[in-house]
Amino acid sequence: MDAESLRRLLLDRKIATMPELKMALGTEVDVTVFRKLRELAYRSSYSHRGKYYCLDEITRFDATGLWSFRSVWFSKYGTLLRTCEALVAESEAGYDTDELENVLSVGVKDPLRKLAHEGRIVREKMFGRFVHFSADESRRKEQLRARRVWDTHPADLSFGGGVRVLPDELKAAIVLFFSLLDERQRRLYAGLESLKLGHGGDRKIADLLGLDPGTVAKGRQQLLTRDVELQRVRKRGGGREPLEKKPPK
After folding, report:
1. How many domains is the chain built from?
2. Is 68 found in the same domain as 84?
3. Backbone dihedral region for residue 243 (phi beyond 0: left; psi -120 to 50: alpha; all else: beta)
4. Is residue 94 one of the residues assigned to a domain?
5. What percentage of residues in the chain have a pLDDT greater than 90?
6. What is the chain's mean pLDDT, rounded?
7. Residues 13, 60: one domain?
8. Domain span at residue 205?
9. In the chain, fewer beta carbons within 10 Å around the N or the C end?
10. Is the pTM higher than 0.85?
11. Are residues 92 and 121 in the same domain?
12. Does residue 201 sit in the same domain as residue 150?
């Protein structure tokens, strides 16, 4: 089997393990598979210990640079270590361990510990737990300011810092309110809730409300840039008809 045949196989299956690829090629040698894969643009998963492979051309990365198929996760940044480093550096207010695990759907304690030890990220203890920030000093100062705002009164915030789990009652209320809105209002409301969530909010809200993440991102961007047409509360011509004045007899 040549590289093009291997490409067609991966296009059909979406993802495959090394044993599956070796079986398809009729070989027992890993090097033979990698030689064929090198002729293609491919990625290995950051979940499942990197044992799954896919083609670049089938991935549809979301706003956080992640893509999954059948609960197998891939990242545009490559390995789990590099993905953790990139997401922490790009985050609005850093991540604690639980928040980043919610985003990545895998455990991240060891990668975060390694990155901090190597100086590739910085971790600081805040409100009783470690929060991880960019190694760039100016960026880290911005993240720290945002984190202090989010964490000062966590009980008063609907979503809290980063990405937290929403109570079922709150989810139900959001979905109910969302159903009462028109298309434009839904997009803007989804964008507003995504802003509350911070980094990764587009995907979380899209999953909750059954929207495309791009729609949520558009609503969020419209709010941030104030690109919203202010409409009249009442349409032109609405309301009570004016009383007709009768001429005096």
Report:
1. 3
2. no
3. beta
4. yes
5. 43
6. 83
7. yes
8. 168-225
9. C
10. no
11. yes
12. no
Quick: pLDDT tens for 151-203: 654 444 444 444 444 556 677 778 888 889 999 999 999 988 888 776 677 88
In a domain? residue 104: yes
pLDDT bin (cut points 50, 70, 90) of residue 94 is: very high
Are 46 and 64 part of one and the same domain?
A: yes
d(CA 80, CA 104): 9
Rounded to whole angstroms, how far apart are CA atoms 60 and 55? 11
Q: Supply 150's token pair.
A: 């989010």
pLDDT exceeds cutoff 80 at 106: yes
CA-wise closest residue to 20 among 46, 51, 48: 51
Cβ–Cβ < 8 Å for 130, 119: no
- What residues are paired with 132 via a beta bridge? 95, 123
Query: What does the H/E/C string look like for the chain?
Result: CCHHHHHHHHHHHCCEEHHHHHHHHCCCCHHHHHHHHCCCCEEECCCHHHCEEEEHHHCCCCCCCEEEECCEEEECCCCHHHHHHHHHHHCCCCEEHHHHHHHHCCCCHHHHHHHHHCCCEEEEEECCEEEEEECCHHHHHHHHHHHHHHHHCHHHCCCCCCCCCCCHHHHHHHHHHHHCCCHHHHHHHHHHHHHHHCCCHHHHHHHHHCCCHHHHHHHHHHHHHCCCCCCCCCCCCCCCCCCCCCCCC
Residue 246 or residue 20, greater confidence: 20
Of the pLDDT bands very low, low, confident and very high (cuts 50, 70, 90), residue 95 is very high
